[in-house]
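Lecture notes, unit on protein representations.

Consider one protein chain, 172 amino acids long.
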Amino acid sequence: MKLITKDEIVWKIKLFLRGPLRPVFRFLAFFFYNTHYVEGSAGKLQIGKRVGLANTLCNLSSGNITIGDYCAFGQNVMLITGVHLFKNGKRASLVNGSSEGWGGGEEEVPSSGRDIDIGEGCFVGSGSIISGPVKVGEHSIICAGAVVTKDVESHQIVAGVPAKPIGDTREL
């Protein structure tokens, strides 16, 4: 008769529990990793399949945000379409002496025209800021902490403030 060791028992228990517990862990990972914040109309946000947003802030005040399939975002990324317009050195809503609440209304914060379009398969590093209007080409990498204010071509790696090209993903 063969004796069963403690390690074999632990291994068999882990193997037995793996199947039933896998959906629980997937749900928890999805819940914690895909928590994102939306400021503005959620109808202006289009998210592709298998996208990990990791507490990304999506500001939809002045445009739409479209995120392609298979994109991954690091922690604390900001996608910002909102803008406050200035005229003669003052916030636009204060030039005529009107102040419709603190936001200034359509005169100061336009509701469209500053769209952000992120292509398929992009990686956006933690702490990055993408300020519309911007188009990020497919399979691009935005390095951590980058501030993107201009279009990024497909397969481009950008870094810095403001973000500038530093490489090509096809060379990795």
